[in-house]
């Protein structure tokens, strides 16, 4: 099939490559021309503006966005809605909030443009292993683009989840679960690292062992094994963890739905904590322990500005 990929970052570039390997006719556009030129050398047809991209496509056009959620997606959909025609298909494969999907679909519906939301998981390994795809929108359009989904995904690796927003909703919860799993692994390995047996334990070997029939085996453990094999103490890495939005939305949805999700919530808050060099809340805890029990506190070293 003919498909345009807009956004050639770590995910979009490799998805374009996988589609090329699957013999699809791939058109590509990226805000910075260097990425477009790179994929052109591998067989894609480059475009250097959204106007040029749309002109080169044969109706009904399929345009797949792999862009950061938020304003970038909003602006791109707004612009493309003025360029695409009735019957064309616009797919948002980024990590957009599902309620924004509903708004986008309604905005372009009067023009007869079909909107599909596709949650994509697979990271930098997707090119080799395939991408897990969670798709929402009109089921007839889902079936029309199915050849593309089959190419991108491994066997049984894509699913029609329901009407508009369902794909990104399922991906949102997927990422919330991911937060909790990663937090549990992190805490477990920290206990091992702090144990009296740490000198004899090689954490990459533990991660490898747990993937051999253990009930906690997973791809995340495979990645942990690789990380520990490269740097057993993770001494080159700062414990600063960002969040991309889905964890926040999952916790928010749990509140709206009245569902108890303490593990996911705590894992999100731990990410916030990781960004604070000397969290004020911990200072409060230390001060209170000192006040009520006379427990010792460690005095902070004043910065140059404080001196």
Q: How are the SSEs ordered, and which strands pair?
A:
Elements (H helix, E strand, L loop, with lengths): L1 E5 L3 H12 L3 E5 L3 H8 L4 E2 L3 H7 L5 E4 L5 H11 L7 E4 L5 H11 L5 E8 L4 H4 L2 E5 L2 H6 L1 H7 L5 E5 L3 H28 L9 H8 L8 H12 L15 H12 L4 H13 L5 H14 L14
Could you describe the 3D structure shown?
With about 300 residues, the protein is of the alpha/beta class. Helices cover about 50% and strands about 10% of the residues. Strands 3-2-1-4-5-6-7-8 form an 8-stranded mixed β-sheet, sandwiched between helices. The longest helix is centred in the middle third of the chain and has 28 residues.
Q: How many individual helices?
A: 14
Please indicate the percent range of residues in DSSP E strands (runs of 2 or more). 5-15%
Distance between the termini: 67 Å
Q: State the shape.
A: globular
Q: Rg to the nearest angstrom?
A: 23 Å
Main β-sheet, spatial strand arrangement: 3-2-1-4-5-6-7-8
Number of DSSP E strands: 8
């Amino acid at each position: 099939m003919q498909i345009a990929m807009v956004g050639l970052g770590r995910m979009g570039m490799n998805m374009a490559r996988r589609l090329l390997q699957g013999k699809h006719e791939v058109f590509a556009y990226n805000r910075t021309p260097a990425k477009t030129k790179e994929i052109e050398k591998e067989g894609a047809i480059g475009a250097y503006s959204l106007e040029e991209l749309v002109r080169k496509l044969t109706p009904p056009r399929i345009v797949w966005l792999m862009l950061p959620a938020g304003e970038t997606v909003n602006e791109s959909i707004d612009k493309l809605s003025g360029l695409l025609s009735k019957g064309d298909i616009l797919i948002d494969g980024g990590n957009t909030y599902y309620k924004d999907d509903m708004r986008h679909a309604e905005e372009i519906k009067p023009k007869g443009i079909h909107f599909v939301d596709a949650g994509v998981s697979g990271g930098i390994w997707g090119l080799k292993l395939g991408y897990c795809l969670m798709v929402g929108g009109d089921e007839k359009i889902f079936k029309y683009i199915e050849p593309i989904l089959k190419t991108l995904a491994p066997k049984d690796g894509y699913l029609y989840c329901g009407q508009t927003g369902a794909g990104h909703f399922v991906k949102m919860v997927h990422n919330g679960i991911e937060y909790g799993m990663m937090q549990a692994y992190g805490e477990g390995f920290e206990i091992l690292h702090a144990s009296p047996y740490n000198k004899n334990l090689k954490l990459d070997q533990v991660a490898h062992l747990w993937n051999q029939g253990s009930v906690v085996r997973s791809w995340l453990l495979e990645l942990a094994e690789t990380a520990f094999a490269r740097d057993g103490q993770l001494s080159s890495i700062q414990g600063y963890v960002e969040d991309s939005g889905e964890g926040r939305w999952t916790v928010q949805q749990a509140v709206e739905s009245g569902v108890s999700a303490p593990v996911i919530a705590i894992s999100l808050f731990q990410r916030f904590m990781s960004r604070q060099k000397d969290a004020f809340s911990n200072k409060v805890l230390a001060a209170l322990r000192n006040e009520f029990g006379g427990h010792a506190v460690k005095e902070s070293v004043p910065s140059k500005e404080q001196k």
